[in-house]
Write a structure and sequence with these properties.
- This is Methyltransferase NSUN6.
- It holds the Pfam family Methyltr_RsmB-F.
- GO terms for molecular function: RNA binding; RNA methyltransferase activity.
- Belongs to the class I-like SAM-binding methyltransferase superfamily. RsmB/NOP family.
- Keywords: Methyltransferase, RNA-binding, S-adenosyl-L-methionine, Transferase.
- There is one protein chain.
- With 128 residues, the chain is an alpha+beta fold.
- The protein has one domain: Vaccinia Virus protein VP39 (Rossmann fold, 3-Layer(aba) Sandwich).
- The protein is built from 4 helices and 4 strands.
- Strands 1, 2, 3 and 4 form a 4-stranded antiparallel beta sheet that branches.
Length: 128
């Protein structure tokens, strides 16, 4: 939105709500392609709970081989409550809010990121 502020005026509710199922499909494929011990970075340019913390909670419950990993550097705020993640898990997420970014240029746009690490194992994964 920071790069294209006029987009907010043209989105319909149907368009906005269509992103969460699409992101789940993309995450499912990404997990299937992730090799044991590999890192999956989930990052969005939105601040909605449904597209961020809820997606992380869904991925962690759907794919028990995934674990959240700390991010370095930790320059954003922690994740938002409301998606069923623990306080420890929320601390491993990063939310970037332009209203709190003074001199930090990296946090100038609204966005979110998490690092998901696949445990080293040989079992196969199936998309839900």
């Amino acid at each position: 939105m920071g790069q294209r502020p006029n987009m907010a005026c043209t989105w319909t509710l149907k368009e906005v709500t269509s992103y969460q199922p699409l992101q789940r499909k993309l995450l499912s494929v990404a997990v299937q392609l992730l090799k044991p011990g590999g890192m999956l970075v989930y990052s969005t340019c939105t601040i909605t709970l449904a597209e961020n913390e809820e997606q992380v909670a869904w991925a962690l419950s759907t794919f028990p081989c995934l674990q959240l990993q700390p991010q370095e550097p930790q320059i954003g705020g922690e994740g938002m409550m409301g998606a069923g993640l623990s306080l420890e898990q929320l601390r491993q997420l990063q939310r970037f809010d332009p209203s709190t970014a003074s001199e930090n240029k990296e946090a100038a746009d609204e966005s979110f990121s998490s690092y998901l690490w696949q445990q080293a194992s040989s079992h196969s994964l199936t998309a839900q």
